[in-house]
């Protein structure tokens, strides 16, 4: 103790803030390793005093001798006179004096300089006392109406308590929550006990400590807690009990999540052969929650509006979306929680694994949904569209700031990552894929890793089981997909005189002219194929590889014994690989001939979808003539399956957006679509079917839903009249007998072709308190279909000034709906420009929501005239958008692509549609197409 007294005299009586040089690196120093946090938080939900106060004791080990402690803290008031630093010795503890404190705002650093050096190998404890208001920003520790809740991913734990806020720095947590005893406290682990809270100023019986069991080592972003007045549903009849917490008045709508979560958890536990130490799993429905959900260790939080389900009023699509979201968060308990990434640059591994595993989980849960095919196809289409932009980015990114961390959670991290794992799974097979994962999770449990060990495990097993040639390494293969933006276009040119084919690759762009000046890139591409005489659509192991060398030099290959001259050939069976394929004109003709015949089902349903999407994308980008594409699409008049139609309709959205501003081409285009859709619409009995939806399979129901929506949108008389009649009957009787899964179609059609009284009726219905959230969202989307300018302007004002009926999370979708509306686009554009400051205040600075609003406008731009205002606006606001400028550039690229397409292809498409001799009358019952093969 004499040492302390002597050394303390060398230090300032009060910590200084000005004596030491700055530490400016964006990563914490590697000198300290946290081992344990004791975190105490007292929360006040008094409307006049919405605050929290806390104390944290961090025990840490010194790995490299140092004179300071650098950790994270932001927007916290820390009592610098009450900082304590203690060194643990074998027999006694030594208190260290604090010399100075520095705050480094750029990286949220709070740096504490000790009078004594911190010695390598020794263990210390740091105590900090702090306080802060409960914010309303939907991150950190914030209030949501009558509750408080946390959202710490990716870097917001530091706004709730001082900590080492990086994903690789796992530690155990002992959490104490002080709260009014009438409320419920939840955290990562089960409640151990409760005690009275004794305040220094006075003793009160109103507050208690809820003290929770110690966690296993977890990173700070997985810490979670909440104080609320919710009730719970208990489910799970084996080791892990699930507590699903909701507002008491919506408990019945939480039942579906409570029901499926234990079954999904049990599936993952069996699939991955790893039991986690849970006895209790909390699921919390949060009314105001920016993310869709958050996988906190043992306390999963969900955005309430996305998870509520009522079997009497929620659609089957809603059921599927909920199951997918729940599966995703439960999968994270293994991928991201049990084993954590070392740094955010590889976030795609966390999210990619959770996304892919969620597909497997939902497929297990509801095998009749055909989810493995359906969801994989949906995700592939998203990735192929997004990743073809010039401004796309690699999966593995350099991340040097909190803003960059947040922006790394994009579409590619979730979806491209998932489809690369699907590709790997299909190539190496179940045994190699699953056993590799099991071994990896077991080996690195409760640690952080960069997944390099996993790739090595896959390679060893793949070589052992002869699923991969020994000269091929999975780490090298995947690196070619994760380290660079974009994906390849495979070009197959057949030599019909000797039955061979040359195969080359290049990066695919949404505008082929960009390929001329593009950086040289290549990928390791698995080659799988089938032909008319060899229908090997289930042979998923690559027959060949198109290789990519370290210097980005790729090797063209010539394949022998392909197929006889009259046989078509298809590469990338079941879309194993994440790439597009184009062929010589003769092979396209052979494929077209088969598709437009009764033999079209010889081609696997996923590959029929592939041919549709590839032909649309290739023509859009300028790699292929639109004549070939439109001939391919003409086969849809015979197609009966959901997936090819799902793919085609997604592609038609882009053409519809572009052409609807040009009367003559649009008339031919819509008549072309009517002819394609009408046979399927009639087969499915349209809106006039009397069959109960419960008697229809999930896939057929989804198919009927999508076809009916488009039939009404295209003004097919039977559909429009039936929809208007449904709506009129509802208005008269005040009893809604519209089939649940057709309500969006009926509501949208009634608003689009109805009058103001129809809009007012639906708006009033939205305001009824007993409508489930999924029905509210359907109504909001339908209300955006009005063709009345005054109504649309009024609705925009309601969206951003009447949050009682349209919450913040749904406001973006409402704005996007108006932007997609031909009448609504200029109204939405002007609203953004004129009310930008109001939108910033509404969403909170420049949030992801504001960026999504801008993207929704960009997708509708088809001329320089309606682009100028947006470009001028973005240029003036560049400083405001500086941290999101890459996404803004993506929006600008979309407008340029659309305008360029109009100049190059509008007349071309118009002439080809005329060639197909589409009947031009609006009555659609006898439309025909004459094919010229």
Automatic annotation (TrEMBL):
Class in the EC hierarchy, top level: hydrolase
Catalytic activity: Release of an N-terminal amino acid, Xaa-|-Yaa- from a peptide, amide or arylamide. Xaa is preferably Ala, but may be most amino acids including Pro (slow action). When a terminal hydrophobic residue is followed by a prolyl residue, the two may be released as an intact Xaa-Pro dipeptide
Domain Peptidase M1 membrane alanine aminopeptidase per the UniProt entry, residue ranges: 259-481
Cofactor binding notes: Binds 1 zinc ion per subunit.
Every Aminopeptidase N-like N-terminal domain range: 33-222
Enzyme Commission number, as recorded: 3.4.11.-
Molecular-function annotations in GO: alanyl aminopeptidase activity; metalloaminopeptidase activity; peptide binding; zinc ion binding
Compartments it resides in: Cell membrane
Domain ERAP1-like C-terminal stretches: 568-887
Record's keyword terms, sorted: Aminopeptidase, Cell membrane, Disulfide bond, Glycoprotein, GPI-anchor, Hydrolase, Lipoprotein, Membrane, Metal-binding, Metalloprotease, Protease, Signal, Zinc
Active site annotation, chain numbering: 329 (proton acceptor)
Gene Ontology biological process: peptide catabolic process; proteolysis
Required cofactor(s): Zn(2+)
Gene Ontology cellular-component terms listed: cytoplasm; extracellular space; plasma membrane; side of membrane
Span of the signal peptide: 1-18
Gene3D superfamilies: 1.25.50.20, 2.60.40.1910, Neutral Protease Domain 2, tricorn interacting facor f3 domain
Stated name of the protein: Aminopeptidase
Organism: Glossina austeni (Savannah tsetse fly)
Lineage: Eukaryota, Metazoa, Ecdysozoa, Arthropoda, Hexapoda
